[in-house]
Design brief:
The complex is a heterodimer of chains A (266) and B (187). By secondary structure, chain A is α/β, with parallel strands linked by helices. Chain A contains 8 helices and 8 strands. The N and C termini of chain A lie far apart (50 Å). Chain B has one domain: Cytidine Deaminase, domain 2 (3-Layer(aba) Sandwich), CATH 3.40.140. Classes of the chains: A alpha/beta (266), B alpha/beta (187). Chains A and B meet through strand 3, helix 4 and helix 5 of A and helix 1, strand 1, strand 2 and strand 3 of B.
Chain lengths: 266, 187
Amino acid sequence: MMDTSRLTFLGPGLARLRTATVCVVGVGGGGSHLAQQIAHLGLHAVVLIDADILDRSNVNRVVCTRYADVGRLKAQILAERLRGLGTRLIPVVTRAESVIARAWIERADLVLGAVDGARARNNIERLCRAALVPYIDIGLKIDVVPTGDVRGVGGQVFTSLAGGPCMRCGEIVTDETLALDREEYVAGAPEQQVISLNGLLASQAINNALALLTDYAPGFPVPAMIRYDGLVHEMKPDAYITRPCPHYPLEDAGWRFVLPARRMAS
Amino acid sequence: MRRLVDFIRRLLGLGQAAAPEAPPAAARLHVPRSLLRQLREMTQPNERRPEPLALLRARYASEEARNVVVGIGAIPFPDSAYVEGPAGANFDTDWLVRIANREIAVNVGLLLVHSHGGRGVPRFSGIDGRTNTHVMAPLAIGVDVAPYGALVLSDTHATAVVTVTNSLAVAEVIAVPDRLGAFEASA
């Protein structure tokens, strides 16, 4: 049984952690930090959804991995390394869009995402909005000019809740990013030393998750988007979103449409 | 390139995992916290009604997830929907059927909502159970695209039953954090 004495600031909401199931979608550079921190909190279960195999180039940023793990499945490595922390770890080695991953996401208390493409982000958010499951997404981007100078280090923690702004409202998901699909920390150079930057964003995401799961400070709502600027060392809420989300009205949540063809076939 | 390497590894059976564990089958009802607050306000006893009723509009989360139900709106009972009778609240089932027929056009099912007040986990009374079995569950007969059932509230907790494959199952009620009403509608 884990020692909970250091978590008392969470108040009665602490009991909610004991029964909560959280999905972490993508356990690479960002998601491994999310998985590590959330596992330490003593939840009922953490579901690690990732179909990827650990590559040698990943070890510099995927926490809890070693070079000896290269060639093994990331979700299984994380589940193995994070055992014994008072949280049940369930590796689900499949893509987020698969039937089994969707089934876990739809019945989660919260979903954390650290995926490397706008399409994947969009799919997870759509699933979460339909099932009314809170979704927290982290993303990091480094802008390097051809001379090698760093022009920007930017990231965000996006918290997508029913009735609130979505990632389209926040312009994280746009037609352009959907067309690009896969994102890299630096275009054309994926092997980046970003462990510290990912750790920052993941810690903020877990703070948001704690606030949502335990409601320990109800007078202080979780901002929809928190932006990180690594060049000026600043992380602050983005206040520009001031209207309800037109993309995911509550009225459209759940299974909305019956496909005529399927109805005829049944 | 990495995707190609992953693909070849999978083709060769390297790094493969056993079939993933399936999630539990127990039913869940996800309701935004602000909608739960609205339902509590609607079902507070008042001078005219000792036990006001409401309906929770609900859908299955997805075609596959028929054991996860999402609450998307509330319908108050108009005065004309109440009738005289022996229970705390007696209602016109013809009105209920009319609402059910209207809502099913957009895949929406209905949960009958009332409040027992107080603190702690509320339980359905014997008469509640009979209403759930004989009035709410039959609404699902021949309708497998939307959930039906009931929700009983206390001031702190909630208990629900929903139709899963045409029979009522107890559903864990999850009060989901939301931002409904947090933003002013734009002109």
